[in-house]
C-alpha cells in the first residue's frame, strides 16, 4: 500500500523494494512476497531510468522466483508483468551485466506456460534475438535467452512463424560459438529443436543445421540431455527433409550412424536417450536410400541391442 500510494516517488519505491527484500530469508513471508511481484515490476517500469532500482528489483524477483521453483510453485505471471519486463529489457538493452541478470529472470519466468505465452504476446522474441546478436560471446546471456526461446517456440498456439524463422541463424550462431560449453550448447540444441518442430527451416537450412547438431553431439557426448535434445532436433529435421537424413549419413567428420551407436553405448542406462535415438532412426528409415545405407552399417544389431536393454519400454 505504501508503494502504491506514491508510484511517482522513486525513493518510496526503492525503500519499499529494500524492505520487501529484507523478508526474503523468512520462509513464512514467501506466500506474501508472491503477491508483490506486480508491484515490484510496476515500480521498475515507472522508474525505468533508475538503474539502481532496476537492479534491486531484479535481484528481489530472482529471489522470489527461485524460492517458488524450489517449492514447486509455478508462477503464471500475467501480461502486465510481462510488459513491464519487456520495457526494462528495451531500456537497458546495452547494459551487459544487468541484462545477464534480467535474462536469467526471463528464463525462470518462462518456465510457466502461461507466463511464456504472455511474454510471446508482448513481442519479446525480436528483443531476445537482438540481445543474442549483441552479446554472442556472453555464455550466461546465451544460455538464458536460448532457454526462453525454447519455452516460447514450443507453445502450441504459436502465431509467430516469421519471427521465429528469424531466430534460426542467431540460435545456430550461438551453438557454433559455444560448441565446447556443454551448458550453453544444450540450451541452444533445445531451441533449435523447438524451431524445427515449428517448421522454421528452409531447404538451404537442413544440411548446415544437421551438421551443427552433429558437432554438438560429438563435442559433448557425456551430456545426456544435450544428446537427447540434439537427436530430437535431428529427428524433426529428418521428418521435414531427406537432405537432413543424408547429411547425417554423409557428414564430413564421420558417419552419423557410428556416432549414434557411440552415444547409445555411452548412455546405456538412459531410456530418454535411447528413445530419442530410436525416434531419429525411425525418421531416417522412411527414405529408401537412407535405409539401405543404415542396413549396410549394421543398424539392425543396434536396434536389437536396444530392444534387449529396454524390453518393457
Automatic annotation (TrEMBL):
Domain of life: Eukaryota
GO molecular function, one term: ATP binding
Record's keyword terms, sorted: ATP-binding, Kinase, Nucleotide-binding, Serine/threonine-protein kinase, Transferase
Enzyme Commission number(s) of this protein: 2.7.11.1
Gene3D superfamilies in the record: Leucine-rich Repeat Variant (1.25.10.10)
Keyword Cell inner membrane (UniProt): no
Top enzyme class: transferase
Catalytic activity of the protein: L-seryl-[protein] + ATP = O-phospho-L-seryl-[protein] + ADP + H(+); L-threonyl-[protein] + ATP = O-phospho-L-threonyl-[protein] + ADP + H(+)
Name of this chain's protein: Serine/threonine kinase-like domain-containing protein STKLD1
Species in which this protein is naturally found: Brachypodius melanocephalos (black-headed bulbul)
Gene name as annotated: Stkld1_1
